[in-house]
What does this fold into?
Amino acid sequence: MNPKLLFWVPALLRLATVFVAGGAVWWMAGPVAGLSLVLLGAIVALFVQLSYLHQLGEWLNDPQSGRLPDGWGAWTDVFARLYRMRREDERNQKELAEWLARFRQAMHLLPEGVAIMDDVLFLEWCNPAAERHLGLTIERDKGLRVTNLVRHPEFIDYIILGRYEQPLTLSIRGRKIECRIIPFENRRQILVTHDATDTERVEAMRRDFIANASHELRTPLTVIVGFLEIALSDPGLDAATRTAHLKLMTEQGQRMQRLIEDMLTLSRLESDEFPLRRERVDVALLVESVAAEARALSGGRHEIAVSVDGPDVMGNMEELRSAFANLASNAVRYSPQGGTISLAWRRGADDLQFSVTDCGIGIDPQHISRLTERFYRVDKSRSRETQGTGLGLAIVKHVLLRHGGRLKISSTPGEGSTFTASLPNTSLPG
It folds into this structure.
């Protein structure tokens, strides 16, 4: 039925009932009584309507305060519709709250910072990542101008000029923070931040690696090319000089070969294409093999002591041999003639340890944290004299990382150093 008819038909029937009753009283008791009855009915009806209207107004002032009032007549349908609308609104609010909770959870988990600003750059909201990146606190800084919170001239110029096509990189508390502004919703703006410190560091390491590798390869190549030019320009070079040149070229060629082999080893250790394949490693045999290589490198200039007091392990034999051999060869290269080098394998309190102790020149504490960096050398001139590639400790570090271990270094300048390759107890054979 038409909604208008549903409203007007009952209303007209109720009105007609009042008039019929008034007419009946008029016929039985006279016109005064009939009109009085009609007037009384109209007053009662008006009071009822005003009462329902008052209840509706009170509820509209605070819809959440209580239940909807009940009505009579046309008000029954009005209040029923309002009740359905209220239920629908509550359901929508619940869904909206759930979506808002999911959104905030997602924003909280994002590694990128997100800050929402209004048209005059006042902070409305930001996630924890933005707080960390920019030094903000939403409870304290909400409603404040972002340019007053991030006091960097470059940032202010970036916002004023409005050139948002390219991100802006800021140095904040020792971190490299990449900022990008995205306009949205009229004149509101989203400030997105990204911590690029690690990326910058990796990029710097890549540049340093390329530069250092190029330098390390160029030096022996220069020597080889120089001697070849001498040989070509002077065919009558005497045999002794020619032999000396060939010897030097051979040494430099071997140096390049070792460098390339170490770089390939590092590349393989860092690659996901070469997963670690564990096997039972006879540690006593491994340590004796490393000691034999160290004695050969020493040529009798050092005393090599070996101590094995620990179990076998599960790991990659060749990788562990490479790590242990690099530690032993470094000790030989940097220990004075006649010194003692100790190679020891033992079981620690909560790990397994291979340690190499020398009586060399020692290392200043300021250098220890950087020793495992590629091509990092404490004394570059001495490193070239010892024919090191500058990659040995980097290889040790990556081998131990693949085995769940770590490298510990302790040293006293002028007295010697101890390098300890620590493996977890989980490396024990089952």
